[in-house]
Every structure is written in structure tokens, then in C-alpha cells.
Design brief:
This protein is α/β, with parallel strands linked by helices. It contains 14 helices and eight strands. The longest helix is centred in the C-terminal third of the chain and has 24 residues. The termini are far apart.
Length: 352
């Protein structure tokens, strides 16, 4: 009986702590909430599951950007801390959503068979429809990062009428080519820097496809340390510090972010992810396409994405290269990133 009471109390405390998440409202110089602004953490139910949204914008009449996080299972509302998005909130309504099985949207009640790319694409469609209705828009902007670019491409290809245009940050294209090039870069860098531990571990796991998620994580660990994931480690330190003060994610949310959310999402989606090949599956689009690539990106190598960009057909397309970034453009070069997003918006409006 005592054990049951302790368990009940523990669960209650965790739920209470999770409910303490909040997001700062927009205020004027007098401290009053700005009329017509929105700063909200919301839960909506789609396709039989609950999804968590972060919605922020200084003016509800502005265009809506739906941001698709990386991973699988690595939500980015937990990392932003307004580091790059604060200035975007002046001109856009920026919406993050934790995908099925990830972060705040993790639940043990999610049917395992629904942890698929197609289900997340359908979730994205329904979140998009919710935002269109909520803000009275004809279309919204879809923006994805890393794993989110796979969901983004499939979604705009299947439901183009919902979107004004698409922005891919660190676009993933072909996972077989992706992982082989990433591995070779990491091993070469380890040898160049005489990092014997890295060389030993990388040679032990061998070239991809990896035998396990653990082997893949070893490669990613050294890729991060050797500059192929984050080119300028110091520029990313502000984001790491920001995680400590992020109010949108509580301690409980962070626990669910790592275990079980991230681990579960990787386990369930890795097989499908490894078979992604946009060269074969998606070659043309009915909406404008903009790719933002880090010159030093070897997590989703920019040279593969550039080859894909040259192949695809779209009403309009443009490639932006960030010279001081690897895979985390929006964190590594936030000012240039913000400038580019605003430029794309102006450019697309003029083009239309």
C-alpha cells in the first residue's frame, strides 16, 4: 500500500512539474502584453494522439512558419531559447511541434506501428491544417532541419496546396551516400588530427551500414568533435547555456526528451530512415524550394544536397551556402540565417 502511494505521489509530482512549462508573452516598453501577439504552448489531438505546439509571433496577421525538427526524435523548441528565432518572431508566427513519439509528444500509448515516416507526414499535414484554420491563412511556410527535411519534402510533395514554399536546412537526400561520406570524412579528420582513440573506434565499427544504433552514435560523437556537425563549437555554446534557462521545457520534459523519446524514436524510425533516397522518390515540386546548406556539413553532406538541388524541378528554387557552418546553420550563423529567411520571404512575394 505504501509503495503504491509513493508511486502515485511520484507520478503526480512529475505531471505537476511538466505542467509548469511556460513561454514568455510579448510585451511593449511599458510591460503590457502586445495586442495581437501570440505566445502559447498548446496541446492538440490529431490522428488519435496528443501533439505539443509552441506558437510565437508579435502579430497574428504575419505569415506562419511551421518548423520540423531533426532527429528522429530531437525537438528544437527545447533548444531555441529565442537564440535565433526572437528576431523572426517580429515578421512571422513561428510554430514548433514535437513530433509523434518525441519530447513533449511522447506517450507510451502511441501504437508502435504508427511510428513511421508516413504517419509523421500525415501528422504534419493535420498540424498545418490546424494552423491554416487557426490563423485564417490560405497557405503556410514549411521549414525543416535535418531529419525534418525528409518529412518536409514528402509533405510538400504530397500536399503542395497547403504551403507557400519550403525551406530545407541541412537537407537530407540519400542516406546510403550520406552515411558513407560522413564516415569517411570523420575517419580522415581523425587521422589528420592524429586522434588515435577516434581512429581506433571508427575503424572498429567499420563503414556503414552500421550494425547497431550504438555504432552509429560513435560515428556521430566523433563527427561532432571533429567539426563535421558543428563547425564552430564556441558559437554553439550559447545554445547549450540556453537549455538551462529554457522555460518551454521543464526538467521532466528534458527527461522525456532523452529517455524514452529520443531513444524510442531512433529505434522505431532508423530502419526507414536508412532507406531514404530522394534522388529516386521526389524529383519535382509544385512549390518554390529553398535549400540552406552549411559548407562544412558532413552530417548531411552539403555536396549531396547540392547535387539534388541541381536535379530537382520546381516553380522556383534557390540555394544558399553558409560558409561558417556545418549542420546547425540556424545556431551557428543566426544573424545570417535570419537575414536569409527574410530575404526568401521578400523574394517569394515578389516572384508571386
Amino acid at each position: 500500500m505504501v509503495k503504491n502511494r509513493k508511486l502515485t505521489l511520484t507520478i503526480f509530482c512529475l505531471l505537476f512539474l511538466s505542467s509548469c512549462a511556460t513561454t514568455k508573452p510579448f510585451r511593449d516598453t511599458n510591460g503590457n502584453i502586445i495586442k495581437g501577439s501570440i505566445a502559447a504552448l498548446e496541446t492538440i489531438k490529431i490522428n488519435g494522439i496528443k501533439i505539443q505546439l509552441l506558437i510565437r509571433g508579435e502579430n497574428v496577421t504575419n505569415p506562419v512558419i511551421l518548423f520540423l525538427h531533426g532527429g528522429p526524435g530531437a525537438p528544437e523548441m527545447a533548444l531555441t531559447n529565442y537564440y535565433y528565432q526572437k528576431k523572426l518572431e517580429k515578421d512571422f508566427i513561428l510554430v514548433h511541434y514535437d513530433q509523434r513519439g518525441a519530447g513533449k509528444s511522447f506517450s507510451k500509448d502511441i501504437p508502435p506501428e504508427t511510428m513511421t515516416i508516413n504517419h509523421i507526414v500525415e501528422d504534419t499535414r493535420d498540424v498545418s491544417k490546424y494552423l491554416l484554420k487557426r490563423f485564417g491563412k490560405d497557405k503556410i511556410i514549411l521549414m525543416g532541419h535535418s531529419w525534418g527535411t525528409i518529412i518536409g519534402v514528402y509533405c510538400i510533395n504530397k500536399y503542395p496546396k497547403l504551403y507557400d514554399y519550403y525551406i530545407g536546412i541541412g537537407q537530407v537526400v540519400n542516406m546510403h551516400e550520406n552515411e558513407l561520406l560522413s564516415y569517411n570524412y570523420t575517419l580522415d579528420r581523425a587521422k589528420q588530427t592524429n586522434n588515435r582513440i577516434a581512429v581506433g573506434q571508427l575503424e572498429k565499427i567499420g563503414i556503414p551500414p552500421y550494425r547497431s544504433l550504438k555504432d552509429g552514435n560513435i560515428q556521430r560523437k566523433w563527427l561532432m568533435k571533429l567539426g563535421g556537425s558543428i563547425y564552430n563549437g564556441n558559437s554553439f555554446s550559447d545554445v547549450k547555456e540556453g537549455r538551462k534557462t529554457n522555460k518551454e521545457y521543464t526538467l521532466v520534459d528534458w527527461i522525456f526528451y532523452w529517455l524514452p523519446g529520443l531513444k524510442y524514436s531512433n529505434k522505431m524510425l532508423q530502419g526507414e530512415l536508412n532507406n531514404v533516397n530522394l534522388f529516386e522518390s521526389v524529383k519535382s515540386f509544385d512549390v518554390p524550394i529553398y535549400l540552406l546548406l552549411g559548407r562544412h556539413d558532413y552530417q548531411a553532406p552539403s555536396e549531396i544536397a547540392e547535387k539534388y538541388f541541381n536535379l530537382i524541378k520546381a516553380p522556383n528554387k534557390k540555394l544558399y551556402c553558409f560558409e561558417q557552418s556545418a549542420h546547425m546553420i540556424h545556431f551557428e550563423e543566426p544573424e545570417e540565417f535570419i537575414k536569409t529567411i527574410k530575404e526568401i520571404s521578400t523574394y517569394t512575394s515578389f516572384y508571386k
